[in-house]
Design the sequence.
């Protein structure tokens, strides 16, 4: 008999490692243990099952060739033994056994291992508020919950819903409830923006507007303080500011590593709760490996350890763990937090650090914000993506890239390319020369990722100065706060006209781009110009020119009208 | 007065450098010289102008904010002087002057420079065959030609056309002629596949079938030997094998660097005709820079010099040249030949080396071929991409990635990520852990790029053995050539049935994936199995299992039915 390998956890990293191990060591006896009856499913697909895009939950646990990944499948197709509805209670590291409980019978047994792998995943954080266990309150943590959610909606029991948490799952679930089912949905987020720490405020505001445009109420900076319950069922959510009626509440405030089993066994677990592994995915016990949502890995940009609960990461980590268990040295160097989410017709993505996070991590961070076309601007169907690149001014290293774009893979392509570059410590100059495949139907001669680096380069070398969106919005909401500021709109006169009409020419001055060289002497000398165009690139050129003629009191609004149109604002002229 | 910078060439690298220079050195006197009257256009957009996707040629030379980039624009908006319809005749390096001829008046002058930049681009290769200058014969080399082509078609003068050359421009032009205008179009390619040296035969065959499915006649391995002319006009193209009627001939057999000016001035020019530059884009004369289609750069995978005539590359090189001219040290390390082309509803892309090229370059190259979903296989609208990864067996370095896919940016995203990885010498193991942004609408938990690396890893470590598509096709066309071979189809029985019926069970044996472990003893022991499934992954698993039970005489058909369905074959059962 071959090596006995026991894997605790049967969703992503566990099954991946199990199958890989059987291929590497056909003689090995590989057993996967899971407390659930349903295993090996694509948890990230749950919102699309709830929405109806995926008709049957079985599709989430089927292969691409439509076989359901159940106990039969693992046995017959993979040669892997599965013990479902079985909980791993504890690990006896000295005797190399795991104590098990059959959850159907209550019977306790133990299983011996030569090598153990922990793929225990993560568990949803449940806000400790009154009513959190009422009927109609759900987390999005497993297929049973997903089935229950969809069942309740399909039975017409949900007219209104509140999603607590404005992260990826909250947003996906809000879309799922709204889009097909027409549930009146609100998102309540404790922080003052959606996707906090993942993207920064300007792009979060684009996302927020997009959700509002799709009838989702978004309440930011509000904590859910109580789930109001009647007859055991949820009827509302009370925040510090309001009470929102709800037949259903989705709690999506994040996950934490499921690491109690490891901790109880004396394995090293980090402060964030992640099981500490080395690059070989080995825990502090050399006979125990770990992979997936339950582990702490190195963030390749910050250099610190972090938890990255993604199914894709789990698969890659699981494979590396399996290789090492089978005696093939393999390393998993860490992650860069690649992220993408669909919100109706919007893509929102990021990789690396946000500006806010980068500064919190001590970097001398700044950002470039741009709004280029996602392919040749003359190609039919082109659309705008808004990109923010975060970089360190001292080292010129790129720290992150984030963006919003139309619902295609254009943003994804930039995030993916950036992910590779960030993983090797690429600088602004490296990004400036990334060789994206070019042809007008797919990209532009100056690709958005290169252009973002160009701007970063100009900022880093102090050739460009900019105002933040936060400062610009704050001023536009109260122009008298800085009466000497003036927008210098260098777009075509017809584009500037509605703004000039709305704000007056002393606040919003129109001087087209191609006339500045001839007419700059007409400009007032007692104003600070906020140079404004569609995308920011003309503004930068005008800044350079104004500087060269001594009108140095100017700044660029990066990203320009393309960005603020998507962010929305009360003061924007009605178009 | 500032530095005098003269730039010869006004299409891509030239204007990019000129504008960048004016931003870096507002005092500089920057002059762009071009022999054409139309400058700064997106030459890569010509096929889309001819097709009608882009209505007006002006769009190809307009900014994203719809200003035409003409002499007025460069003067007023950019502060750059342009001398159009002006040919640079020669360079006097000692006196630092360029001799010019005004092509409208014939008048000769000269211009002094402190720094000169050559952005002379490339010129189309015109096959030296009789009739190549007849009316109706075109290259796709500038906007005038594009206008003439579209004009001739729009006037209804073109019922049939022949495109000579099966490279990117040939394919794009063939689509342009066929799609909107309904011109009966043939492609004649001298090599025995489309996109020679860019992609390998299996993917080229997918492209070929796609073109044929869209009514384009594709003639491979045929040289155009004569353009048959009557009354000065083309009437047909004669190849070694046939004569094809044609009212129009598009010659698209490639371009060569336009480097005569440089060569005549004694600058170092490579054997391929490219102007040799260092990483700072400096020619062998330190006061002369060069960028764009006319230069020779380092291929970061092969390590050799090559010419990379892409508008995107030209822009990046132009910016680096400008930086250096302005005293900002910048490097352009080289290229990895990122490539993508649209052919009707198909995307075809590549980066790095093809298998054939890699072997010709002396690498110990092998390939992995796969056919995964472009996003989560359960997500609506998912489609298959066919990916070939080329790697070196000795160093485990990835040498190239190529693919075909649906008409979205999914393939582009993989090519782009690979481009970054190839530029830093990534290995199979690095590719296995590339962190593509994951969410079901955008990708899959095991991304195609990771999966391709997994297969490469298994091949490299000799855990997997495969048959090439070439060998498989050759055997299927003549099964008696290897009577002891047998396809072992591990797909569902209903999928295998039409094949078993067509070929008989001794040639095409059906044994479903999940039954092999129980029924392998039924298999014949005197056959070599070609294990067959939809994508190749089940086949590999079955190979590992068969090996473990001693049935080691087996091989995998990589990519499986997904690939051969797209390649097409006479012997395929009608579905």
Sequence:
């Amino acid at each position: 008999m071959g090596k006995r390998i026991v894997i605790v956890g049967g969703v992503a990293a566990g099954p991946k490692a199990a199958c890989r191990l059987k291929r590497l060591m056909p003689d090995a006896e590989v057993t996967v243990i899971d407390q659930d009856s349903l295993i090996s499913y694509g948890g990230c697909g749950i919102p699309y099952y709830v929405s109806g895009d995926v008709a049957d939950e079985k599709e989430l646990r089927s292969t691409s060739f439509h076989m359901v990944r159940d106990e039969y499948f693992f046995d017959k197709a993979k040669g892997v033994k599965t013990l479902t509805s079985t909980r791993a209670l504890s690990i006896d590291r000295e005797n190399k056994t795991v104590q098990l409980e059959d959850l159907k019978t209550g019977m306790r047994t133990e299983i011996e291992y030569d090598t153990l792998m922990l793929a225990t995943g993560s568990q949803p954080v449940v806000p400790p508020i009154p009513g959190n266990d009422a009927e109609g309150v759900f987390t999005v943590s497993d297929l049973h919950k997903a089935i229950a959610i969809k069942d309740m909606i399909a039975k017409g029991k949900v007219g209104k819903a509140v999603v607590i948490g404005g992260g990826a799952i909250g947003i996906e679930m809000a879309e799922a409830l709204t889009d097909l089912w027409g549930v009146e949905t609100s998102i309540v987020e404790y922080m003052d923006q959606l996707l906090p720490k993942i993207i920064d405020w300007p792009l979060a505001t684009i996302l927020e507007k997009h959700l509002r445009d799709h009838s989702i109420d978004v309440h930011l900076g509000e904590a859910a303080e109580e789930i109001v319950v009647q007859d055991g069922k949820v009827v509302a959510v009370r925040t510090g500011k309001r009470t929102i009626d709800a037949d259903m509440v989705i709690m999506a405030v994040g996950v934490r590593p499921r690491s109690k089993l490891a901790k109880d066994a004396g394995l090293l677990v980090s402060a964030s709760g992640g099981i500490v592994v080395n690059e070989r995915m080995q825990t502090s016990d050399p006979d125990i490996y770990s992979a997936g949502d339950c582990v702490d890995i190195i963030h390749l940009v910050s250099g610190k350890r972090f938890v990255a609960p993604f199914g894709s990461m789990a698969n890659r980590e699981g494979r590396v763990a399996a290789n090492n268990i089978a005696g093939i040295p393999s390393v998993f160097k860490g992650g860069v937090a690649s992220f993408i989410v669909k919100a109706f017709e919007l893509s929102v993505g990021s990789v690396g650090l946000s500006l806010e996070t980068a500064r919190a991590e001590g970097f001398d961070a700044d950002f470039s914000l741009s709004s280029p076309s996602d392919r040749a601007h003359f190609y039919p169907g082109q659309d705008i993506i808004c990109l923010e690149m975060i970089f360190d001014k001292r080292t010129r290293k790129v720290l992150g890239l984030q963006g919003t774009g139309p619902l295609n893979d254009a943003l994804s392509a930039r995030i993916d390319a950036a992910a590779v570059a960030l993983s090797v410590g690429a600088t602004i100059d490296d990004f400036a020369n990334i060789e994206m495949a070019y042809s007008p139907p797919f990209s532009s001669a100056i690709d958005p990722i290169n252009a973002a680096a160009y701007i970063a380069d100009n900022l880093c070398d102090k050739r460009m100065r900019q105002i933040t969106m936060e400062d610009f919005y704050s001023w536009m909401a109260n122009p008298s706060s800085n009466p000497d500021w003036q927008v210098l709109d260098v777009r075509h006169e017809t584009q500037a006209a509605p703004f000039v009409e709305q704000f007056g020419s002393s606040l919003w001055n129109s001087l087209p781009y191609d006339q500045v060289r001839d007419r700059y002497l007409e400009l007032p000398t007692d104003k600070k110009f906020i140079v404004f165009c569609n995308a920011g690139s003309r503004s930068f050129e005008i800044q350079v020119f104004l500087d060269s003629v001594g009108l140095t009191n100017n700044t660029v609004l990066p990203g320009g009208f393309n960005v603020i149109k998507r962010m929305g604002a009360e003061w924007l002229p009605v178009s």
Remarks:
- The mean pLDDT of chain A is 97.
- The domain at 339-460 of chain A is CATH 3.50.50.60 (FAD/NAD(P)-binding domain).
- Residues 159 and 183 of chain A are 5 Å apart (CA to CA).
- Residues 311-325 of chain A form the longest helix (15 residues).
